[in-house]
Specification:
The complex is a heterodimer. Chain A is an alpha/beta fold. Chain A is built from 17 helices and 20 strands. In chain A, helix 14 runs parallel beside helix 15. Chain B is built from 15 helices and no strands. The chains are: A alpha/beta, B mainly alpha.
């Protein structure tokens, strides 16, 4: 490109405040035409706010947007579409029971009658699909195609609306490694056709792999923009957090003892009566971490829920420390599980692990509110003891601010998770169930939580780890089991496998003996 | 912190809501050609300007405290108990059965018996919708409303066919025995200037005790903790091993029991017999009281007092300003409910913004 060619997107001095929170502070950004530009930053760094301003969801308090060198006010998403900006959201905006072509024309119909639009769209989709190797059948129904395909439909939707600038928000969160690779190939193809792509992610590996330029955001500010070729994951992590971070998890080899958890042929349905666990058998020993890898929605959640007493099993058996535990009926609830020494950090801390309007001290007793040390007498709870206990645990787990009277919703994601982890780990359980321990958690807190998990293992406890972050599974687990469609596809040792092999298992492909 | 101070939440906003309701009510009074200020003065004077007025205001407030607490307790478990009307009617039946069937030696014992009877009958009437909600998923709002009609019809049937005094034309029970009559404000504190016939009676004390009891229950006991947890997040409650069926049943039983206890005031303390429609809409007013009181016992008490004033002041207004009809009073009361309950966010959002702006400025 020449010096005179304008930038595809130029942001000048964008600021945006939500009440007292300055989400974006004087942000300037230059995105070259035909480039893949990464934006990284921790949760709450202001990435999403910035993109929402660019897409017209929010109005900036100050600053200017230039598209292809022209000052372009973007008051709403219609204006963004007119300016050639397309957005692929983290959570797809597709009508599940519509076909691909129906979803694509939704909101872009040519007239009152659908048929001409559909015919035209089908032809254009075919062309687009071939041109960019998207491999999407215009007439398949959304709910019947894979998540990777659904994402491509979202991309097609934007291309159909003549988007030249594509914004992808955390696009790989729901994809298998193979699907993610395919997505990156598509993005490279789009780049070669002259499209400009902005990729928002918190996965440094993806940034290194696919982007040309990367901008780092921290606390609402743009802290750096560098050429990807000139940087390293370590440097980016440091820019994101503002201090040196340990990306690798330090841990000694496991020293497995007796079998703590023994699951045989476990079956369970979700609330739609669809079978989600189709005969799971697993063992976890004292002093080891078993990681469950898998794309979200393949039964991992149900496994945690059955073990944690949130849903009943329909078949099979579970033994803890050699004793069978109830799978249905009144002694299969969360209270009975806790009494058995099973602690549970649930996947969704905001919906399950915490009561958001409760204060920290009320949350610190949640699930353990029958504990005799929290009771004053038969009638009343000993709230003073619970508050005291909370203050100590917040201190030990470095929860910030260490204020037991702050409501859970007012803590950051990382500190909310520390409250849950503190509550569960401090019970000194025999078995810890931990789902998505670091989802939406900042890097500093990730490091801390990982250390706590390892420390618990080293005390000789059994840990079942479920995570959709393959990196996390690889670095924490002593053994890895891969789940697909309610089955265990196989078990591997982290030292003897790689992401490629796990990725295939996650997609349900078995090579040889599993 | 993205919050306004607590005093603004619990005091300022209800006050602004109330003020708006009064302004609009004033416009209504102006429209029919009367002076809003004079109407206002009559209402205030009539409700709190004399011992006579206080006697009625606090009598009504007693009813509303019970029904308001009932709605508040259920609401902490995120259940909307619209059935206060029917539960209180059944509570009246419970009071009548207790008072008529046992030869009580002293009113204090009779009061304890009546509390048990009223609460048990009210709770039993709430138990059926609660069970249907907990086990069958039938929506509690629909079923409790329907049970109001069933209660009303049942009461008419029983009063006409079972409890009516032989030879009497009135569909009501016999007068309760003298020993069960509750002391009224004149009996307890004649020096305060209450007349011998004031309806205010010791049930008011029971209502205050109920406020304290509910406060202890919700914020100091494990059951209250579980009720609040379930109300905020059912999925989290399941995670913690809190049994949803148990919480729904218990919170509705307590709610129904509190509604039922309302009847002690009217049936035992005032009418001294069970008549047709002993509740007179207090069950529904309880919803507004709980909404305005933010489901907190202190808020419920204050809101009940306000509605007591509206009822008594309204009655005086109707008497002194013939142009203001019964229906007009309902309009005014409805405006208060509308502004304090349904339109709460209309005031809340701008006030919150104002506080944030002030904080940023300082």
């Amino acid at each position: 490109m020449t010096d005179t060619e304008p930038y595809a997107i130029e942001l000048k001095g964008i600021s945006k405040a939500f009440g007292p929170v300055q989400a974006n502070k004087d942000i300037s950004l230059h995105v070259r035409k035909g480039a893949i530009h990464g934006i990284v930053g921790e949760n709450g760094a202001g990435k999403s706010t910035l993109m929402s301003i660019l897409y017209g969801f929010y109005k900036a308090d100050a600053g200017e947007i230039l598209i292809n060198g022209q000052p372009t006010p973007i008051p709403d998403s219609q204006a963004a579409i007119r300016a050639g900006i397309g957005m692929v959201h983290q959570h797809f905006k597709l009508v599940e029971n519509f076909t691909v072509v129906e979803n694509v024309i939704l909101g872009a119909e040519d007239g009152a009658l659908l048929q001409p639009s559909i015919t035209k769209a089908r032809r254009i989709l075919k062309e687009l699909s071939d041109e960019y190797e998207l491999h999407v059948d215009p007439d398949s129904v959304i709910e019947e195609i894979s998540v990777g395909h659904q994402q491509r439909v979202e991309i097609l939707k934007q291309l159909y609306r003549h988007a030249d600038i594509l914004i992808l928000d955390e696009p790989t969160g729901v994809l298998t490694p193979a699907e993610a690779d395919h997505l990156f190939r598509i993005l490279n193809g789009l780049k070669e056709q002259g499209k400009t792509i902005i990729l928002i992610t918190h996965k440094l590996r993806e940034i290194m792999e696919v982007t040309d330029t990367v901008s780092v955001m921290r606390r609402g500010e743009m802290t750096a923009t560098v050429q990807t070729a000139d940087t390293s994951p370590e440097e980016l992590a440091e820019l994101m957090v503002g201090r040196k971070v340990l990306l690798r998890v330090d841990k000694a080899p496991a020293n497995p003892g007796e079998v703590v958890l023994d699951i045989k042929d476990l079956r369970a349905n979700d609330d739609q009566k669809v079978e989600r666990l189709k005969g799971i058998s697993l063992q976890i020993r004292a002093g080891e971490i078993l990681g469950i890898a898998g794309v979200a929605g393949n039964g991992q959640s149900e496994l945690l829920e059955v073990l944690g007493g949130m849903i009943a099993a329909t078949g099979g058996s579970i033994a803890v420390n050699g004793e069978q535990i109830d799978l249905t009926g009144t002694s299969s609830d969360g209270q009975s599980r806790r009494a058995r020494g099973i602690a549970h950090v649930p996947e969704d801390r905001q919906r399950e692990g915490l009561i958001m309007p409760f204060m920290a001290w009320e949350n610190m007793g949640f699930g353990y509110h029958h504990d005799p040390k929290y009771q004053k007498n038969r009638l009343f709870m000993d709230n003073a003891a619970l508050k005291q206990d909370t203050a100590e645990k917040m201190e030990r787990f470095d929860v910030r601010p260490p204020n037991p009277f702050l409501e859970a919703k007012n803590f950051s994601g990382g500190n909310q998770q520390k409250i849950v982890v503190a509550r569960e780990i401090e019970r000194n359980p025999d078995l810890l169930l931990i789902g998505q321990p670091t989802r939406g958690v900042d890097i500093g807190a990730i490091e801390f939580i990982h250390k706590q998990i390892i420390a618990l293992r080293d005390e000789g406890k059994a840990i079942l780890l479920v995570s959709v972050e393959l990196d996390e599974i690889m670095s924490l687990s002593d053994r890895i089991a891969v789940m697909f469609d309610g089955h265990i596809m196989g078990e591997r040792l982290p030292s003897e496998t790689d992401e490629g092999e796990l990725g295939l298992l996650m997609a349900g492909v078995t090579k040889g003996a599993a | 912190m993205d919050k306004m101070p607590r005093w603004a939440d619990v005091a300022l906003i209800p006050f602004i809501n109330l003020l708006l309701a009064l302004v609009v009510s004033g416009l209504v009074v102006l429209y029919i050609g009367e002076s809003p200020l004079e109407a206002m003065a009559i209402m205030v004077r009539g409700s709190v300007g004399s011992a006579y007025g206080w006697g009625y205001t606090l009598y009504y407030a007693t009813n509303f405290i019970f029904t308001g607490l009932a709605v508040a307790v259920a609401f902490h478990a995120r259940m909307f108990n619209i059935g206060g009307e029917g539960q209180a009617a059944l509570g009246g039946l419970g009071v009548a059965v207790v008072c008529l069937s046992i030869p009580w030696p002293h009113w204090s014992l009779a009061l304890i018996g009546a509390i048990v009877g009223a609460a048990a009958f009210g709770a039993a009437w709430a138990a059926i919708p609660a069970y249907l909600q907990a086990k069958r998923g039938s929506h509690i709002v629909i079923t409790t409303i329907m049970f109001n009609f069933i209660a009303s019809a049942l009461l008419v049937y029983l009063l006409v066919n079972v409890f009516r005094v032989p030879g009497s034309m009135a569909p009501e029970t016999a007068r309760f025995a003298e020993a069960t009559h509750l002391p009224n404000a004149y009996d307890v504190a004649p020096w305060l200037g209450f007349s011998r016939s004031t309806p205010l009676n010791v049930s008011f004390v029971v209502a205050l005790l109920a406020c304290i009891g509910v406060w202890l229950l919700i914020w100091k006991t494990r059951l209250g903790y579980e009720i609040r947890a379930y109300g905020h997040s059912q999925s989290a409650a399941v995670y913690a091993g809190i049994n949803p069926v148990r919480i729904i049943m218990i919170s509705m039983l307590i709610s129904g029991g509190l509604s039922g206890m309302m009847a002690i005031n009217g049936v035992m303390g005032e009418a001294e017999r069970l008549v047709i429609d002993p509740v007179q809409g207090a069950g529904f007013v309880g919803i507004a009281v709980a909404l305005m009181g933010r489901s907190h016992p202190i808020g419920v008490f204050l809101a009940a007092l306000l509605f007591g004033m509206l009822y008594q002041g309204g009655a005086e207004l109707e008497f002194e300003m013939p142009a203001v009809s019964r229906e007009m009073l309902l309009v005014i009361q409805a405006l208060v409910i509308l502004f304090t309950g349904a339109l709460d966010n209309m005031v809340r959002t701008p006030v919150e913004r104002l506080f944030l702006a002030m904080r940023k400025g300082s």
